[in-house]
Amino acid sequence: MTIGDLVEILSGRILVENHSLDEEVPRGGAADLMSDVLAFGTDRMVLMTGLTNPQVVRTADMAGVNVIVFVRDKKPPHETIEMARDSGVTLVSTGYTMYEACGRLYAAGLPGRGPVKIENDSW
Amino acid sequence: MTSHEITYVQELIYTTRVETVMATNVVVLSPSMTMAEVKTLMKNKRISGAPVVEGDRIVGIVTMADVIQAMECGKLDSPVTDHMVREVMTAFKDASVVEVVNNLGREGFARLPVVDRDGKLVGILTNGTLIRALLREMDISFQKKETERIQTYRASHIFQDILSDDTSVVLRFIVDEKDFSNAGKASSMIKKSLQRLQIPPPIVRRVAVAVYEAEMNLVIHTDVGGEINVDIRPDRLSISAIDHGPGIKDLQQVLQPGFSTAPQWIRDMGFGAGMGLANIKRCSDVMKMLSEPGAGTRLDIVFIFGENTSGVVGGPGGKKS
Asked: Is there a contact between B15 and A40 if contact means CB atoms under 8 Å apart?
């Protein structure tokens, strides 16, 4: 799925565009817990989240996430947008809830990470 | 202009604030002026409209169309207040440019006086000031990209260019406690530096995640902040995160995923789920932690370049430490 497809499926609005709309996103994920993003984030993925503070962009940048989708039409503060511009993360906002945004993308063929579990000594 | 550049302009109008694109030298009219005086002023100043101001309040706006109408009716001697438009659309100086672009375009306004939150006139915005400002921003952005390209070229040659038996580049960062707005800044700089050194992206990613977790720990849990030192060699990278308090009582406990002592406000921002050290261990090739309650904590992590470059953090082929 390309970033352009994703924006269309979510009836999204691009807030910061740092990638070409033709670029492929290999998989998606959703979290309001940034430690989860750092643990399960994969390269170039799209992250659906309801958090809009600047640390979300920082976390995505560190985890290699290319695109962040803010659900429920959440408006990120100016600092978040600035940080995305600097760090090369693309920001999209959608009116759908987290559940429906994920469902729509998954139904359209965007895979997730598959079964993941954290256990003691699993590294 | 390609489609990409058009979207870049769109992005700029979302992220730029009105006060950075407005003109601050506003020509203003006083209510007592005649339309003839307004006509002369507009001609001399080469403007086609101006707000009418009483004290520091905007009471109306006069445009060239109002002057022409006054001329046609032979009323150039009458005061401004007879001809001005009293309903003035203004823009707040801290609003995003996207809002004013909508008003300038869709509503057909040629100029918008800009006011602060007290309603005081601080500037004016027209299509001209807008375009000049956006072009300036695009130029700055282009120069930034060019500088980045040159810096990457220079940094990536450092190990060949510097002569020694064993070269390493050492980076030092100070991390302040509870400074959430700057949390992650050091990690961000480390990531950028590694990219400039052209370290393979999968390694950069593992380092970025581990060092970010370590930095967040310094921000969230220490009472005096700490420091992060990075030692980069051609074949390995060693990072130490050091703080002087408060130290950890039970090292085994904090290593368990899910164990956390983070306060609620940190959790509200999406952090403090107690997976930090687990993540760091998973991402790094070697991890060592020393801590003493009341003293401080030292975390050492090492990344070896070469075969251990599987990109996905925690994916199959994870490293044994």
From this structure: no
Give me the pLDDT at residue B321, please. Answer: 34
Q: Mean pLDDT throughout B217-234? A: 92
Residue B202 in contact with partner chain A when CB distance is under 8 A: yes
Average pLDDT, chain B: 86
B303 near A CB under 8 A: no
Rounded distance between C-alpha atoms, residue B132 and residue B110, angstroms: 15
Q: What is the separation, in whole angstroms, between the first and last Cα of chain A? A: 31
Within 10 angstroms of residue B46's Cβ, the number of other Cβ atoms is 7
Q: What angle do CA B278, B282, B285 make, to 5 degrees?
A: 130
Distance of CA B101 to the CA centre of its chain: 22
Give alpha helix (H) positions in chain B.
3-15, 18-21, 35-45, 64-72, 97-105, 127-156, 158-161, 185-196, 201-221, 251-254, 264-268, 276-283
- Percent of all residues in chain A with a pLDDT value above 70, rounded to a whole number: 94
* Cβ of residue B120 closer than 8 Å to a chain A Cβ: no
- B152–A contact, CB cutoff 8 A: no
- Do B257 and A123 count as a contact with CB atoms less than 8 A apart? no
Query: With an 8 Å Cβ cutoff, are B11 and A17 in contact?
Result: yes
Query: Contact B138/B9 with Cβ under 8 angstroms?
Result: yes
How is residue B166 written in tokens? 């064993």
Cβ–Cβ of A120/B14 closer than 8 Å?
no
Q: Do B15 and A54 touch (CB under 8 A)?
A: no
